[in-house]
Amino acid sequence: MSSVYEFHETGDLDSLTHEAAGLRIQVSRLGAELVSIARRGADGRWTGFLWRDGDVSRPAEGWGNHSTVMGFYSHRIKGERSLYRGQEIRGGTHSFIRRKVFGAPAVDSAGGSLIYSLGPAQIEPHEYPLKVELTLIYGLGMAGDQPELTVTFEFSNHEPELSANLSFGLHPGFAVQSLADARVILPKGTYTRFLAPGNFLSGETVTIEHPGGPLEIDKAKLPDSLLLAPAQPLEEPCAVEDRAGHRRIELDYHDAPYITIWSDGHAFICVEPCWGLPDHQEQRPFEQKEGIQEIPPGGKLSRTIAIRPRIG
Q1: CB contact at 8 A, 171 and 270
Q2: CA distance readout (Å), 248 to 170, 234, 281
Q3: What is the pLDDT of residues 244-265, one digit of tens each?
Q4: Which of 6, 105, 127, 255 has the fewest CB atoms within 10 Å, i.e. the most exposed one?
Q5: For residue 225, what are the contacts with CB-CB under 8 A and spacing of at least 6?
Q6: CA 184 – CA 244 distance, rounded (Å)
Q7: Which H or E run includes 27?
Q8: Is 278 within 8 Å of 291 (Cβ atoms)?
């Protein structure tokens, strides 16, 4: 491999480092989940940016993941079941990907990326009934003078005659020293908030005119999730600021139609790019879910986000 990047694997944990940029990720093959995003400081020490960064043990309490991959549906289906064109789908929160063990990634030594795949043969009919393949690409590079991680979702519909409906997203929990002092920064713009008591859509929405900057959040209510849709694609990045920890993470989510903000009260805050929302309290058929995506027969759907961690 080129000396620009270093790849290591330890059991089911893969590590890729961009040496010149001082940026490193670790990915668990269970769920193809990022378990660490880290920057190397001027003193040579690594600073982690995810909740329980690099720790793959189970916590005694609280959220047990770091950056859950969501897909072929996102968030929740009511009663852990739904009907897709009359066929039952069953599964828990954020779908089944988090429970799948992926094979070893393809390593792109020139582009600096880890490529994970999940094909139709690995998906049970009750999980998702159509022949659709997921390719997930984690890439390390530079955005100007700033190191960045890109995450690309690619779905390939292998059905020759049927369109495929699905939703997906990333559920990264960004570590903060104090949840109370953490700030979520959103660009100026108009946002629609989807009300979802108990994490299911009520059908009610609220329009928010945000002047840009820190978003006023009642963090005690975040277990119910804050679901937002910008009226226009975001031209500026979102950010999570951990001033006490001297960390800032910038989030280029211009491709994402929805953003979810969530925490369970522990020292992290999730700012999630989403292509789809949870079920309504009065459940709709799967293909009519809010924000559901559609891929034509034989077609592909590709979307990318970028994460730029900064120290100081």
Answers
A1: yes
A2: 19, 18, 36
A3: 999 999 999 999 999 999 999 9
A4: 6
A5: 75, 196, 199, 260, 261, 262
A6: 14
A7: strand 23-28
A8: no
Task: Choose among 169, 173, 139: nearest CA to 257.
Answer: 169
pLDDT digits (tens, 9 = 90+) for 228-240: 999 999 999 999 9
Residue type, 131: K
pLDDT the model gives residue 110: 83
Please give the distance of CA 234 from its chain centroid, rounded to a whole number.
Answer: 17
Q: Which fold has domain 5-311?
A: Beta-galactosidase; Chain A, domain 5 (2.70.98)
Cis-peptide into 153, omega within 30 deg? no
Structure tokens belonging to residue 255: 């491709």
Query: What does the domain layout of the chain look like in residue ranges?
Result: 5-311
Average pLDDT of span 36-55: 96
- Report the residue count for the chain: 312
Cβ burial of 226 (10 Å; 0-12, 13-18, 19+) is: buried
Q: Which of 196, 194, 179, 235 is nearest to 212 (CA)?
A: 235
Q: Tell me phi and psi for residue 311, to 5 degrees.
A: -105, 135
**3-state helix/strand/coil string of the chain:** CCCCEEEEEECCEEEEEECCCCEEEEEECECCEEEEEEEECCCCCEEECECCCCCCCCCCCCCCCCEEEEEECCCCCHHHEEEECCEEEECCCCCCHHHCECCCCEEECCCCEEEEEECHHHCCCCCCCCCEEEEEEEEEEEECCEEEEEEEEEEEECCCCCCEEEEEEEEEEEECCCCCCCEEEECCEEEEEECCHHHCECCCEEEEEECCEECCCCHHHHHHCEEEEECCCCCCCEEEEECCCCEEEEEECCCCCEEEEECCCCCEEEEEEEECCCCECCCCCHHHCCCCEEECCCCEEEEEEEEEEEEC
Query: DSSP character for 16?
Result: E
The CA-CA-CA angle for residues 16, 249, 198, to 5°, reads 105
